[in-house]
Design brief:
CATH superfamily of the largest domain: Glycogen Phosphorylase B
Number of domains: 2
Order of helices and strands: HEHEHEEHEHEHHEHEEHEHEHEHEHEHHH
Strand content: 5-15%
Structural class: alpha/beta
Strand order of the largest sheet: 3-4-2-1-5-6-7-8
Low-confidence stretches: 8-27
Length: 436
Amino acid sequence: MTGLTFCGCRTLAEQGPKPMANRADGPGGMRLALICLHTSPLARPGVGDAGGMNVYLRAVAAAFARLGHQVSVYTRATSAEELSQGAAPLGSGDGPGTAVLHYLRAGPAEPVEKSDLPALAPEFAAALARQSRPDLVHSHYWLSGLAGQAAAASWGVPHVQSLHTVAAMKNRDLAAEDTPEAAIRLEGERELVTRAARVVTVSAAERDGIVGDYGADPGRVTVVGPGVDGTVFRPGAGPDLASLPAAWRGPAGYLLMAGRVQPIKGQDLAIRALAAVPAAARPTLVVSGAPGSGHLEYAAHLKTLAAELGVADAVVFLGPQSPGRLASLMRGARAALMPSRSETFGLVALEAAACGTPVIGADTTGLRSSVVDGVTGLLVASRRPAEWALAIERVLTEPGLAARLSVGGIELGRQRTWDHVAAALVATYAAVARTM
């Protein structure tokens, strides 16, 4: 593998086999190590590199604990405060298990560029290997896998890999102004998914990409879609209208787009679509999120674009919101927009649907799993602004459509709990254990 090694640890074959304890049904449950090297599960989605994966890890770790398992989540310390703290609880502690986030030293205790993180993987793997031996390691994102694969080998336990975003898929759907993922990531992902005892994907689109682009064994790829926190993302009242700017209180209301501000998310298409809606029926577009790493110019371009199209007064840029505030904004929105060029799943679409908000999404990749066309939202196959404007007008004006989509979304949210996700993952882990 060019330019990368899996941290120099001896392979499992070189060490000789160690017993694999399948404790899923025993006292104390399984001991699980979840690896997230490059971002903390406690980071707020929409800030920097934090997004759906952060929500996923925090929620599934807490769900594992509720099911009685002992969960250690490992991330790289990015401040002296985190190093001093050492660990932090995840979840509410309302179950028989435990979920704890551990901050490990690897490189400087400060944020570093993502491109510099592969070089820190050996130090992170060494720090991992000094922790208590788990029954199984599950790495999230490719950078985590560089260290997780090595630590699992040193412990003599199975390694499960989730990518969450697939570089090969992302490169196929890049916007013209975006930068392709580097060869080192493509090579790293290919080796990780072919070496892992099991690969877990969040959608059929991700599974097909991993199998087709990287040659992963389809028999060792399992699809487990993410869940939604029904205590937060649920139907109910939206924000107090009196607290909103006057423009939001117009007869057409507002549309919401939440997520990192970067070209692959398609905020530019949302603005162009808004401009194509007749002015008399035009809602406000509320964009919630911060620029992703390296995308400050794109964020500035969006404001220029809105001004050029004459809709600057109808576009509101918000920073990232807390989960509770985001859910409130979702409940008040006429629709949530997801014009992404590519999504591994699109967790925001599921969260909006669970709030009873119709979703208008791109008919692509993982959004076909998170948006049920005609049931929880509408999928738009074209990237022509006029087609998106028509979809927006349908949701705003077609009799009964928004109400039907709202009912469908609420029902989908009820079926997708994090406890169901955790149970499916534990079943996958148990199946892996039986093969060791």
